Amino acid sequence: MSAEERKRVRETLLKYTKAAAWEAQCIRERGDADFGYLRAHLRGYIFSKYMMPEGECRSDRISVLTDASLARMMKVTPELAKQLDTARSCAGATSATVKKALLLQAMERELGIVLPAAEAVAAKDVTDLAKVALRSLHRRSAPARAS
Predict the structure, then answer these.
(1) Which of 134, 144, 145 is nearest to 30 (CA)?
(2) HSE (side-chain half, CA atoms, 13 Å) at 94
(3) Where are the domains of the chain?
(4) 35-49 and 95-111 helices, crossing angle to 10°
(5) 3 state SS for 61-78
(6) Do the beta carbons of residue 70 and residue 96 sit within 8 Å?
(7) CA-angle at 69, arms to 24 and 110, nearest 5°
(8) Strand partners, 125
(9) How far apart (Å, rounded) are the C-alpha atoms in residues 136 and 134?
């Protein structure tokens, strides 16, 4: 890889890292956000974490977005990326499964929330994930009850 290519890669990484941080900040600062606001910023956050331009994939399904991101990184079609994702880790997880798990961990860390694991993993699309995140944000910002 040439010095120019390395520079482009660094710039791209920095661009998406900053975009994801901005989306996360928007979500964190509006703990009382309505669903539409949260969903829009969460979608932007996912696209940034997956290093994809917003218009690259029209789907809101997490599996489709994950496959598209893997395909983009591998420079192949999503269909081919899915076929190639047969090599499994020693834990039996595909690259797509690991990528989604890392996304959920990043969301918890960067949004300052705790996602109920079963609900977060079961989320099929951005809307489902936004519902889980919204409940977590509201729990985080709810005043503590006196006992």
Answers:
(1) 134
(2) 13
(3) 3-140
(4) 130
(5) EHHHHHHHHHHHHHCCCH
(6) yes
(7) 20
(8) 61
(9) 5
Burial class (CB in 10 A: 0-12, 13-18, 19+), 130: buried
Which amino acid makes up residue 59?
S
Tell me how far CA of residue 41 lies from CA of 9, 33, 68, 120, in angstroms. 25, 10, 19, 17
Contact 69, 99 (CB under 8 A): yes
What residue type is 36 in one-letter code? G
Q: How many CB atoms lie within 10 A of CB 123?
A: 19
70-123: per-residue pLDDT in tens? 999 888 888 887 777 765 555 667 888 899 999 999 999 999 999 999 999 999
Identify whether the C-beta of residue 133 lies closer than 8 Å to the C-beta of residue 37.
Answer: no
CA distance linking residue 17 with residue 21, whole number of Å: 6
Summarised one tens digit per residue, pLDDT across range 19-37 is 999 999 999 988 778 999 9
How would you class 26 by CB atoms within 10 Å of its CB: exposed for 0-12, middle for 13-18, buried for 19 or more?
Answer: middle
